[in-house]
Fold this sequence. Notes:
By secondary structure, the chain is an all-beta fold.
Amino acid sequence: MQVKLYKMRSLTHQDGKKRLVDLELEFEGKRAYAILDSIPLGNYRFTARIELDPKRLRKSTDQCCDYFYSGKLVLPRPENN
């Protein structure tokens, strides 16, 4: 099954600093997910993703992204996994 991916931009807080991050975004029905990483393995694709509040997604008119996420985005750190 082919999934349509969009570009998303959001503000995140890491190490006490605010910064913009660009991630891929996918929808599954009424649910929205930010894609952290995606690895192909043969005919399969393993995806690490975070569920987002779709009410916080806003269509963007900027060329950099399709959506802007205005909710609190906390990205996991690889060293904590």
